[in-house]
Amino acid sequence: MSKISSPISADLFERAQKVLPGGVSRNTLLRGKHPLYVKNAKGCKVFDVDGVERIDFANNMASHIHGHAFEPIVSAVSEQLKQGTAFTMATEAEILFAEHLCSRSESFEKIRFVNSGTEAVMAGMKAARAFTGRTKIAKVEGSYHGAYDYAEVSQAPNPSNWGDLERPNPVPLAHGTPSSVIEDVIILPFNEPEQAAAILDEYKDEIACVIIDPIPHRIGMVPVKAEFAKALSEWTSTHGAILMFDEVITYRSEYGGMQEQLGVTPDLTSMGKMIGGGFPVGALAGHADVMGVFTKGERGLLLPHSGTFSANPVTMTAGLVAMEIFDRDAVSKINKLGDYTRASLKDVFKTADIPGSVTGAGSLFRIHLKENAPTNYRETHPTEKEAKALSAFIDELYDEGIMMIHTASGTLSTPMDESVIDQFTDAVYKSLIKVKPILA
Ligand SMILES: Cc1ncc(COP(=O)(O)O)c(C=O)c1O
Q: What is the atom index within ligand 1 of the atom nearest the CA of 217?
């Protein structure tokens, strides 16, 4: 529990609980007695209503690449606000942003905008079904792809229900998930090409889509092995299924997303978060033939699809500015800072003499209070002791002026530099020393 008193946040939460279930609109904000409420933010700093300043490594769950209130975005969006925010007409802003994103990745021939990563994944799964005429979706155990029923299966299994490692059970997340959903989701072991292919073979005429996050944060933020991505790519192309990369978070990792580094060309890619420049966004991009399901073709209109605020010009404008500025140099600079962060953290574990490891790639990292870095979801799953220590560690970091995602995942933003990382690793050291007794 945080030792810093935050009476204004506490009062706000009292009020919030009267009108919002659990006091929030997103459960991820719930920690300790009450969430903290923000006053304002600038660059990589966030100021709460009780006057405490923190360096932001959460970045609204990896959605800010340029930090907060980034001047070029503020000024472009302010101009757009004066022109109107959403119309029952198309805008050029949408075309400009689509042209930009399609120029970044070879696999993006056509793109459709939506309002969240969840919606992008949902549209991708439905597009795969419409294109292939099949129903089953295959995903990796423990991977997070948002809140669509099919995407949620086996998002958070535990030792009591996850079954054999080589053949994981499909485990529902929400009570009331229809059994038909569970039957239609096939769960694959992570980074195990042969085992995954053997499972897929059993359903080879039924699989519409295989979805994979190239650096799945809930699977310990362990990067996917190129051989695994390639095996899935080969399997899907041999068996007429769609390979979808979920790059909602990982698109930040290379100029053209992780697919550029892995040398795999997915049929579809879901995106979201940072491509919106701080505004709600989702996008589905892919090969023109698969994306053709959204429009009337020889087989008719296979997937009618709309969204009231999709491609609104505020998001399109913010996204275009954010992504144009996130050019190859900016990507390479932030990734180098990521290398520096991971290396510094490893040193801190040694100095603090604590069993700790760090995973991640590019501008993403995750801290584990485990001697050996995990290699899959099951190894990432913390023991009771580790979970207690991790929660206390995040509290200590908050008190040291650092905001992290509560799984101890962190993301960098372009306003950060090595001096910010040094402040961070100092805070990590102090926090680790405080929680060391829990791990003993
Ligand atoms: C890999 C991945 N896919 C999809 C989503 C869902 O995105 P959103 O929260 O915008 O619906 C997330 C969100 O964290 C994600 O990490």
A: 16
